[in-house]
Write a structure and sequence with these properties.
Layout lengths: L2 H7 L2 H37 L6 H24 L6 H4 L4 H32 L13 H4 L1 H21 L9
Helix pairs in contact: 2-3, 2-7, 3-7, 5-7
């Protein structure tokens, strides 16, 4: 069966999860390229031309926040986050399933709280500005709820796999 037929069989949530992952990978790659160019520009100006430009560091920090949050969604999808699989793998099938479900539901609860509080902080920081760029701090803080939403989509996809007794990604 080719990929097109396989995609047709998937449900709408699988497609949403897949598209969110593709968007996350694209955004992380783009932001890493932009961050690298900005940092390189700042280094050249500081050490070669002896003209330090302060905004480059601030923008690089903001991009790193976004890269970390969105990159976490990618790591969740592929099972790349740290876990205590050594202990869970020693359990029999039934207790292992229970522990996995409890773990996933606890993480979903944490992420929902993270999204809610991240949005509250983002809105609160709407009228606070970066020191050198004068960018509203809303934008760097918005990475928390946006990244949290992308993580939540991937976690719900994993819960769906567990519910169907399918094997989740490697790290689970």
């Amino acid at each position: 069966m080719d990929q097109i037929e396989e995609r047709k069989r998937e449900g709408w949530f699988d497609r949403v999860s897949h598209q969110a992952d593709r968007a996350a990978r694209f955004l992380v790659a783009l932001m890493m390229a932009v961050m690298s160019a900005i940092v390189l520009f700042g280094v050249f100006n500081r050490f070669i031309f002896k003209i330090p430009i302060s905004w480059t560091e601030e923008i690089a920090k903001y991009l790193l926040i976004w890269i970390s949050m969105i990159g976490s969604a990618i790591a969740v999808r592929i099972g790349g986050h740290m876990g205590v699989g050594m202990f869970v793998s020693k359990l029999r099938q039934r207790p292992r399933t229970v522990v996995t479900w409890i773990n996933q539901l606890a993480i979903v609860g944490f992420i929902v709280i993270l999204i809610y509080l991240g949005m509250k902080v983002s809105i609160k920081e709407l009228h606070t500005f970066g020191y050198t760029t004068r960018i509203p701090m809303f934008w760097p803080f918005l990475a928390i709820p946006v990244g949290g939403l992308m993580i939540l989509i991937q976690l719900l996809s994993i819960l769906k796999m567990l519910f169907k007794n399918e094997s989740p990604p490697l790290g689970y």
